[in-house]
Amino acid sequence: EHVGPVVDFARIGATLYSVSQGGIFAHEGEKIRLIHEPEFRVFGMAAVPGADSKEDRLLLAGGTPGESGRVAWLNIRSGKSASLKVAKDVIYDVAVRPDGREAALACADNRVLTLQLKWFDMMPPILRHKHTSDARAVAYSPDGHWLASGGLDGVILLSSKANKMEPNVLQEHTAGVESLAFSPDGKHLA
């Protein structure tokens, strides 16, 4: 059973995964089963489909408020996981670029980090850009060209994969941005 609120969902194939303080659950039709109990509190989760189902993974982000921001791989088939401390405070959200080669992290310390992903190997994080308050959400466009991040500063930062210059700043919100999603055609951001 879930403990506390369900904080995120991810789908790989026909299976839906949900996460709360009670762990990660797989939903397959009417069957629901606990598949993993993470070693840290998870705030965000993203699917990383493999070349075949033996390589399907979930990428988890979270940590302990004020102490650590952690990222972990979970191999769905084997149940094996590996984690990495990447920040001194919680990571609120994680997104995986559609090609599966990069992940973005929204951190409580205002930073948006990217990780180059390899098979069960996470390279050290790279600073992509910073908000003036907690970064709370990240999303990649369907073609992987754009990375959007939202923060409690009410700003969305939009940066291009091809251009390493300063991100575009969208300042039309009167409160924090805590969730982001691109439309399937990549032309709109909600």
Keywords for this entry:
single chain; 190 residues; mainly beta; five-stranded antiparallel β-sheet; four-stranded antiparallel β-sheet; 0% helix; globular
Largest beta sheet, briefly?
5 strands, antiparallel
Count the E strands: 17
- Into which percent range does the helicity of residues fall? under 10%
* Number of H/I helices: 0
What string gives the helices and strands in order? EEEEEEEEEEEEEEEEE
Compute the gyration radius: what is it? Answer: 16 Å
- Overall average pLDDT: 90
Low-confidence stretches: none
What is the global morphology?
globular
Question: How much strand?
Answer: over 45%
Cα distance spanning the termini? 31 Å
Structural classification? mainly beta
What does this structure look like?
- It is built from no helices and 17 strands.
- 38% of the residues are buried.
- The model has no long low-confidence stretch (mean pLDDT 90).
- Helices cover 0% and strands 53% of the residues.
- The strands form four sheets. Strands 9, 10, 11, 12 and 13 form a five-stranded antiparallel β-sheet that branches.
- It has 190 residues and is mostly beta strands.
- It is globular and about 45 Å long.
